[in-house]
Amino acid sequence: MTEPVLRLEKLCKRFGGLLVTDEVTLDIMPGELHAIIGPNGAGKTTLINQISGLLASDGGRISFAGRDITKLPVHLRAALGIARSFQITSILSGFSVLDNVALAVQARCGTSFRFRRGVAQERALNDNALAVLDEVGLSGSAAVRAGALAHGERRALEFAMALAMQPKLLLLDEPMAGTGREEAARLLQLLHRLKGRFPVVLIEHDMTAVFALADRVSVLIYGRVLASGPPGEIRADPRVIAAYLGDEVE
Amino acid sequence: MSRLHDARDTPMRLAWPLAREIFPVVLFAALALIPALAGLLGQQYVLSLFGRVMIFAIAAVSLDLLVGFGGLISFGHAAFIGVGAYAVGILSSHGLREALLSLPIAILASALFALLTGFVCLRTKGVYFIMITLAFGQMAYFTASSLAPYGGDDGLTIAARNTLAGFELLRNQWFFYYLVLGSLLGTYLFCRGLVDSRFGRVFRGAKENAVRMQTIGFDVYRFQLTGYVIAGGLAGLAGFLLANATEFVSPAYMSWQLSGELVIMVLLGGLGSLHGAIVGAAAYLFLEEWLSGFTENWKVIFGPMLVLVVLFAHGGLMGAWNAVVQKVAQLQPFANGAPARD
Amino acid sequence: MNAALLIVQVLNGLQLGVLLFLIAAGLTLVFGVMNFINLAHGVQYMLGAYLAVTFYDLTGHFLLAAALALVAALVFGLLLELLVFRHLYYRDHLDHVIATFGIILFLNHGVKVVWGSAPLNLPIPEALSGSVQLADGLLYPLWRLVIIAAGLATAALLYILIGHTRLGMLIRAGASHAAIVSVLGVNIQRLFTIVFGLGAMLAGFAGIMIAPILSVEPGMGDTVLILAFVVIVVGGIGSIRGAFVAALVIGLVDTLGRSFSVDVLRLMVGPSAARTIGPAIASMLIYLLMAFVLYFRPTGLFPVRGR
Lengths: 250, 342, 307
Fold this sequence. Notes:
The structure holds 3 protein chains of 3 kinds.
Chain A: E1 6-15, E2 18-28, E3 33-37, H1 44-52, E4 59-64, E5 67-68, H2 74-80, E6 82-84, H3 97-108, H4 123-136, H5 151-164, E7 169-173, H6 181-194, E8 200-203, H7 207-213, E9 216-221, E10 224-229, H8 231-236, H9 238-245
Parallel strand pairs in A: 3-8, 3-9, 6-7, 7-8
Antiparallel strand pairs in A: 1-2, 1-4, 4-5, 9-10
Helix pairs in contact in A: 3-4, 3-5, 4-5
Chain B: H1 17-41, H2 44-69, H3 78-93, H4 99-121, H5 126-145, E1 156-157, H6 173-196, H7 198-216, H8 220-246, E2 248-249, H9 256-269, H10 275-294, H11 299-312, H12 316-331
Antiparallel strand pairs in B: 1-2
Chain C: H1 3-34, H2 41-59, H3 62-83, H4 93-115, E1 131-135, E2 138-141, H5 142-164, H6 166-183, H7 188-210, H8 220-235, H9 240-269, H10 271-296
Antiparallel strand pairs in C: 1-2
Helix pairs in contact in C: 1-5, 1-6, 1-7, 1-8, 1-9, 2-3, 2-4, 2-7, 2-8, 3-7, 5-6, 8-9, 8-10, 9-10
């Protein structure tokens, strides 16, 4: 039996009196695309923030590749290979598209405590970055200021930055949100291509995407995992239908 | 491979890339010629005025590094000038007058102070950061004021300027002027290189989006602390030069009013261009010289002027200059392309 | 060090604390609700003192002078808000800092032009001058007790205002969610103006109360301002409760520190060393305290949620 890449054990998070993450226990297996669905306010983003380290957990344990990372700071988790995207796309708007990705490459390639040589000239970083941009289809915009990109392109840039980290786990927080049909289709294609390379945790509301991509689906209601299993099983689960899917099932 | 250009996050993106290279050259050339001008006019006073401008310019450049590139609005930067100056003063009062000793000590002392205070400050953000740097600046000021053996409130007169390798070179006004100019040039070039380096890109990225930088794998705190210490050390250099220039040190060198004036200099010149800080320092000090000729209470005029600048003039002097350059560039066709960088 | 001296210094510490609270309260409210850093708050305190002196010179009657000064301070504060601050609320903090710094320069030197640079004085009202006997051989100035009482009364009034009135509810809501409050149909600009006016009055009031025991001179607001900043940073920006607790703590630490640091150090390092470094340590104490608090709680002791 293979070891899970990410293991959450009874993870908790409290905001004042409100228990937002309620003893969540979950395993993410190597190579799987694991979707987390649930109504708004169920605590999905909070969970992602706990996994990536932006929020400290109030209880429970997070293990990554067998190692306890519950108290590890954000940047060290990233260095271990945990990459993420944000619900509201988070990029470096004032930098060029290339620089955004090159920075992600820079983070894992040698020390950044170099004070003299111009970084824009570093061939290795730039070539690497361009290759990643190629994969997401943005190499034509390498010199464009990131803030000038269209919404879908910014999402793609965020993907590129995550890919440039050569992640061992990718956390995606509603990547389809706000995208038009064409962009959504392109993102879907991209996700299909990435599937299997590394485990992905995908939070989504777009059920077409979820059921097209996911190997397993977990349903989060009021911070608790209601059900977890293959998409077919989840779709048919009466508890899930009652609590969330309802008439959304197509 | 598509054309690469460095899209630096500075409020002034020079329309005419060459201008970014030409302006500082012209600036430093002009500064180098000032002594000749002073000699011609027979005005030694000009030499000391420009010397003072350049010393504060060093501090302003180091502050621009923090504010313009790092997004760290430090309102206690004068403390580092003061620590550097007091290092010189204290060593001098104990008979240690050698610059080769005082200078590294001054820079290290300021850098150490920056490390200790930055350690706490950088755990805060936004307005907390502004206020805590202000408070630490005050702490330095009050500590210096209570150092009775070193003059306390009244300050400490330094018997004479430092010696250099045993020689009384700094007493020569011309030598001292070029020493200051050399320091300014060195500071400027160092900061330019720093900003373009690997470190610099992370530092700038942290200003742009610190959370993103962390989730890519950068320990933002460590980078910001390093930048803070570097800026502190450079301001210590300014302090060393200031103590030698005035042959006097006083707690006033650490006052929060001076810290505020440094921020104004940087803002006036235009954030994020480094040579803008030099221009801002010059503009501020010249304005001070000129206005105080009219009335002792020139700040009554200057205060509202400042408010108006903030309300209406974004980008400071360099911003205005760039706007002009842009207009001129639009009137002339010029050959394609950003020149190959550096 | 005897008990009498200790009691006197504790009272002095409370008086300083209460004064700091009056100033910090306005500062923290303005920042909490409008997200506006007002460096010029210190000069509003100074103006209160100067106006009290002038009105006393004109009327010869302390209470009347105080009332007029309070009104004048309010009017002046509202004028500042109308002419300058209103345009800055949605700008970034650097702009606030520079603009209010400019106001400080203008007013610090402006008062020199109007009143001259010589320190001025306001006599304590007859009935309240003199000392109170707290214990055998222990006399304490009555006016300082009045300040403490006034400060505590103001704190109580603020507590009622913020916690139990409609305005207070709006202030609390505005502190965390100004945009939402405005969408709910509340005139947000009017709320801002009221909050600013309140802050100006508190600062002016502090200035009026302190004028009889401190010399009124240009720049008197500057040191107090920095202390007020330390108070609100330690207390938690936007929190009146935090400002109250932090103000009292800082007032006590600073006063007791200055009085007893040399004595305490003497026990540790000997008299001459104590005399040299004692004052330096005393002036550093509250900043060390601030650093200590902020290291463990970067947003202060009572941070307001939503910031």
